[in-house]
Design goal:
about 230 residues, mainly alpha, about 70% helix
Length: about 230
């Protein structure tokens, strides 16, 4: 299918009910058709990889097309300039998460952008930095612990950000790093305790939620079991 056919197909799934449901979860639906994600993912299987098409779909500004773009792009063809352009366009938390988890984490400069974006002021760009940390903690099996120790310092710095979409990403990154292995588990708990002492309502929530999960004996058992299989 070409670009025009794809847009027409996505539009054929237009659903006011789905759009209303998305809006209830804080998703920006200004240019959304409400296409179910399983449909988008299935369509992507027949289109990937296609870098040029991904760029065009993203440029459309259509919410569903941007999810598809992140799924079909070739991470080897993604430049730092493209990542910056797309990050500037971020206007909804789910698009941030989809782009980071489906595409950006697989690019050569993923770690560089995680650290850089976590220091940025724009809400969704900063969220992207912490979401990338969370995704890399799960999927990058070759990164050294020291990489994630540096991320923990940035996580502490982000602990006082009261913006909902940022604080949830900070929490997510803290929990995922803490579940990577037992060494990082201990360091993440230490970071959470430090965050808990910060004079911020957001910091207290981030720390309490992370400590609740990381101190769970079942979670700790899973980490040890996974390490034992390696």
């Amino acid at each position: 299918m070409n670009y025009t056919q794809i847009i027409k197909l996505l539009q054929s799934y237009y659903s006011p009910r789905n759009i209303a449901g998305m809006a209830r979860y804080g998703i920006n639906v200004a240019k959304a058709f409400g296409v179910p994600m399983p449909v988008v993912r299935k369509l992507a299987l027949d289109l990937r990889p296609d870098h040029a098409l991904a760029e065009r779909l993203w440029a459309s500004g259509i919410h569903d097309a941007r999810h598809l773009a992140a799924l079909i792009d070739d991470p080897k063809a993604v430049s730092e300039d493209q990542m910056e352009r797309w990050a500037t366009d971020f206007n909804s938390w789910d698009i941030v998460d989809g782009a980071c988890n489906n595409l950006f984490r697989r690019t050569p400069c993923a770690h560089e952008k995680a650290a850089e974006w976590a220091r940025r002021e724009e809400e969704f760009v900063r969220r992207a930095g912490f979401v990338l940390m969370a995704c890399l903690a799960v999927h990058d099996h070759t990164a050294k612990d020291q990489v994630f120790v540096r991320y923990l310092r940035l996580i502490k710095q982000g602990g006082c950000d009261e913006r909902n979409f940022v604080k949830k990403a900070v929490n997510w990154a803290l929990r995922q790093i803490g579940k990577r292995n037992m060494n990082l588990h201990g360091k993440a708990i230490g970071t959470a305790i430090e965050i808990q002492r910060l004079p911020s309502k957001s910091a207290r929530w981030i720390a309490a939620d992370a400590l609740r999960e990381l101190r769970n004996p079942n979670i700790q058992a899973r980490i040890r079991a996974r390490m034992g299989r390696r």
